[in-house]
Each structure stands twice: as structure tokens, then as C-alpha cells.
Design a protein that fits this description.
Blueprint: E1 3-7, E2 9-12, E3 17-23, E4 33-38, E5 45-50, E6 56-58, E7 66-71, E8 76-81, E9 90-95, E10 109-114
Parallel strand pairs: 2-10
Antiparallel strand pairs: 1-3, 3-8, 4-5, 4-9, 5-6, 7-8, 9-10
């Protein structure tokens, strides 16, 4: 499965952004999808994940502010990010096949939050 990430950008603290992850090489309705992020000089961090049955999981650092969702008909997973903080600044990546391993590689999108 090849995933294409879109969205991201720059926003002031307190603002919102939507990032999307779309399968370009097939369907991923039978895969758990995860979002990861990595800021310069920091380790890769798991952000959120969604199972094939729609169950959602969040890191404590984003719980209550980020919402993950999936639209299997469009082969797309979304990450709605609200109440953004400067510490959310990072490159964001999506990956298929769960989140047991940290994977901050591939095509990502930059999210920059200014104070």
C-alpha cells in the first residue's frame, strides 16, 4: 500500500489543520492506520491510530485536541488537529499496518505552529 499525505502547513497557536492520508496503490480498509510525527532533533513519536473497526487511539499529548477518522470508500484517513501548540510542530507521517513500531519515514507533511 502506498500512502500519500496531504495537508499540513503553518498556523498560529490555537489554530487548526487537517492532514490526510490516501492510498494510491490500493485499498487499506483492512489495515490499521497510524500517524507519527518527528520534530528536528527529536525522536519519532506515535500520535494516533485507527483500527479497521474504527476504534481510535491517541497519544496523551494530543488527546482531546486531535481527531482521527477514516473514510474507506475514499481510501483516506484524516487527522483533524485543533488547539494546536508550538510543540506540535513536526513532520507528520502516516503508515499502514498498525503502530507497534515507530515509523517516521516516507512522504510526510510539515506542520508548523507559531506562538
Amino acid at each position: 500500500v502506498q500512502l500519500v499525505v496531504s495537508g499540513g502547513g503553518s498556523v498560529q497557536a490555537g489554530g487548526s489543520l487537517l492532514v490526510s492520508c490516501t492510498s494510491s496503490g490500493g485499498t487499506f480498509h483492512d489495515s490499521d492506520i497510524a500517524w507519527f510525527r518527528q520534530a528536528p532533533g527529536n525522536e519519532c513519536e506515535w500520535v494516533s491510530g485507527i483500527n479497521t473497526d474504527g476504534t481510535r487511539y491517541y497519544a496523551d499529548s494530543v488527546k482531546g485536541r486531535f481527531t482521527i477518522s477514516r473514510d474507506n470508500a475514499k481510501n483516506t484517513v484524516f487527522l483533524q488537529m485543533n488547539s494546536l501548540k508550538p510543540e506540535d510542530t513536526a513532520a507528520y507521517y502516516c503508515q499502514a499496518d498498525g503502530w507497534t513500531k515507530l515509523r517516521c519515514w516516507g512522504q510526510g507533511t510539515q506542520v508548523t505552529v507559531s506562538s
